[in-house]
Amino acid sequence: MDYIRLKARAKINLALDVLGTRPNGYHDVRMIMQSIGIYDSLDMKKTEKPGIWLDSNRRFLASAENNLAYRAAKLLMDEFQLDEGVKIFLYKYIPISAGLAGGSTDAAAVLYGMNRMFRLGLTDLELRERGAKLGADVPFCLMRGTVLAEGVGEILTPLTPCPDCKVIIAKPAVSVSTRTVYEALDEIQISAHPDIDGMIRAIEAGDLKSVASLMGNVLEEVTIPRHPVIKDIKQKLVENGAMGAMMSGSGPTVFGLFSDEEKAGLAYRALRESHLAAQVYLTDLYQERKRRISGVL
């Protein structure tokens, strides 16, 4: 295989709890992660000449050696001492610095694509182990679907698929540093922890109303005071029919869950007209199939 096209899907956190800090500075977390319909596209082509060439529709991402997609390719190139190269074109659509794992999912797609094109023979578990070296969200972005993530995010347990619903994604015109948010969290006392086990039971029961009512993200306690527009977006979504609304990851993106497609459409228009968010999307949840088909990650 000399060419592959992949979809790198964004994620939201239906629940996010931080349990403590390790001596090395990493945080123990417990999260329910969920893939959504928004995705970047990656075209990957094998070359006879060794090396990595990265280009993108977002010019500032092109040929950036600190880009996670580039680093993912280099990780496998170095490990397996490949004597061929790869050209990657990244069509970037997932909002950047948004709490949606945009960089991590691109890295996951590159790992998957390199494994296929160069016939490296790595299992899904072995790919996730390598993904963890690049970032805490990369292993999930390889697994996808509805997943319980523990440890620093690398211990993954697939869950029953979350009940289908419409999802509005709204990113305000601010960016957030994940590292800064976690450092600030260490300085405060978390006031309430989400009921992760209760949400797992609600997901297993197919009870979307309970899933929405149990959503919680402890990082909101740090990010919202710094960016009050996040709270405004949450309120606007609920006012327009969202069953629940919450910040994803370290933010600043907010998502709302809707059981009714018509209400979701009306809320989408209301949010766009409010100008609270710079980017607004109406999408769905995404569930991973047991087998990947036709090179589609």
Please write out the topology.
Elements: E1 3-21, E2 27-47, E3 51-56, H1 68-80, E4 85-91, H2 102-117, H3 124-131, H4 138-143, E5 146-150, E6 155-158, E7 166-171, H5 178-185, H6 196-205, H7 208-213, E8 216-217, H8 220-226, H9 229-239, E9 244-247, E10 254-258, H10 261-274, E11 279-284
Parallel strand pairs: 1-8, 3-4
Antiparallel strand pairs: 1-2, 2-4, 2-5, 5-6, 7-10, 7-11, 9-10
Give a written overview of the molecule.
The chain is α+β, with helices and mostly antiparallel strands. It has 2 domains: 3-158, Ribosomal Protein S5, domain 2, CATH 3.30.230.10; 166-284, GHMP kinase, C-terminal domain (Alpha-Beta Plaits). It has 10 helices and 11 strands. Strands 1, 2, 3, 4, 5, 6 and 8 form a 7-stranded mixed sheet that branches. Strands 9-10-7-11 form a 4-stranded antiparallel sheet. It is globular. The two termini are 15 Å apart. Residues 290-296 have low confidence and may be disordered.
Compute the separation of the termini in Å: 15 Å
Radius of gyration: 19 Å
| Discrete helix count | 10
| Quaternary organization | single chain
Major sheet characteristics: 7 strands, mixed
